[in-house]
Amino acid sequence: AANNNWWRGGVIYQIYPRSFADSNGDGIGDLAGVTARLDYVAQLGADGIWLSPFFKSPMKDFGYDVSDYCDVDPMFGTLADFRALVERAHALGLKVMIDQVLSHSADQHPWFVESRSSKDNPKADWYVWADAKSDGTPPNNWLSIFGGSAWQWDTRRCQYYMHNFLTSQPDLNFHNPEVQDALLGTVKFWLDLGVDGYRLDTANFYFHDAKLRDNPPRGRPTGEDPAVNAVNPYGWQWHKHDKSQPENLVFLQRLRTLLDEYPNTTMVGEIGDDDGLARVAEYTQGGDKLHMAYCFDLLGSAHSAPYIHSVLERFEQLAGGGWPCWALSNHDVTRFATRWGGDTPNPQLLRLAAAMQMSLRGSPCIYQGDELGLPEAVIAFEDLQDPYGITMWPEFKGRDGCRTPMPWQASADDLGFSAVDVVTSKPWLPVAHAHQSLAADVQAQQPDSLLNFYRQLLAWRKQQSPLINGRLQLLPSHPQVLAFVRSEGAQQILCVFNFSDAEATFALPAAWGEAALLPSSGLDGAGLQGRTLVCKPWGGAFVAAV
Ligand code: TEU
Ligand code: CA
């Protein structure tokens, strides 16, 4: 029978359709473009894809503002294009996960248009509405992730509505069972079209505190970057009042019950939270809620061996059987090549980070282009498209730099982004010149390219069951070297990564007898001398007990 738990340790490849491939020359990526490039994803060795939103949307947040949960935006194509994509993916052995943006809709969704029309229409309570304070100010101190108050005054209804993001992304009221039922119906729509799972946007934001209590000032959690703390000094809207947390878990159980009616399906939740690791553990324990979840602990700038050790140690202590998804980049953060590697990313660091990601306990998620080692693109202010970046400029240069078109063909002006000769318009974001030499067609021809390293690493990983299914036992923290053992039954694989630009030596675990470097992972840069591993800068190794 097909592997019921393909997701458990499977490699997910995140596709941001707007920037992946443009099939009709309008400068915007689309579903047919994705379909045409799925063989590249299969050749990489991924087990499934996560497609960012392609639903009907005013595109204020590029699809994360949905105005029809059950249709494809014409910009991306049609439902028929989506069916063709799923069919092609399945023919290539790829699972298809799609984004679900349930916590908020677009303000142009018919539900919100009706809800805001009065205080007593059938949908009046489908969103989070509240009266102003006696002095006209918002009901509490909640802030939007995108800056400013989380409350927007509506002149017609003469009340405030809550939004965790843009004012054009009104928050749905999950305390209303009709909202939950309607959203579960939209999730079912795509299951019936054959999707294999979902990435759940802001899976920890569904419920707000119904009592609308002020958030207390948040202590500065470790790893929190200033931009996030500056925007939201009071922590996330409802999380500070755990009264609403159990309701969130109940909704996740309702989602799971629905998915369990469709064999081999899965959900990965996105957790943006002051204590993301605890949420990931909580939401993925018990086998009755999310299958997996990701948080932002490896999506920031910190990447020292001690820091990564602390993240893994914390999660293993919390996990209790939970299952993380580990991403190093996504469409919301600076690409890790630049975030961790700086302006001239060290190619060895890129290999080391990929090898580390592929050996962690959990399911790895590769963001499109990271397998090519793409650095963050530099976007001029006048070319910015992301409202978050425009409002936060220059503290936070926005999210466009990780969203420029994929470079398929070095010789083409638009690097092969648009498939047709007669291109009717330029790409929606400028292609990055720095990406030309890294284009997929160039790297496919270079045996020692990063692309071929990823292909080799993922192929090798498929044969290493301890990396996919095994336990993780951390070795003591070390200033340069991150090391842990992945074990399954009698098989043990020691994974060693020197996250420093100096040579590092590392002693084999005392309990180990003979050991040998595992060949053919592609990871190099370390040698075994007796019982000591000598790692070059940014070098690492997989070692097997023999
Ligand atoms: O991002 C959620 C999000 O932005 C927060 O989790 C925040 O970034 C994080 O907690 C800060 O560390 C999702 C989508 O990925 C993003 O593209 C959308 O803009 C957003 O939700 C609204 O749908
Ligand atoms: Ca297009």
From TrEMBL:
A Pfam family cross-referenced in the UniProt record is: Malt_amylase_C
The segment(s) forming the Glycosyl hydrolase family 13 catalytic domain are: 14-403
One term of GO molecular function: alpha-amylase activity
Task: Give UniProt keywords alphabetically.
Answer: Glycosidase, Hydrolase
Q: Does the keyword Hydrolase apply?
A: yes
* UniProt record, GO biological process: oligosaccharide catabolic process
> Which protein family is it in?
Belongs to the glycosyl hydrolase 13 family.
Q: What is this protein called?
A: DUF3459 domain-containing protein
The source organism is Rhodoferax aquaticus
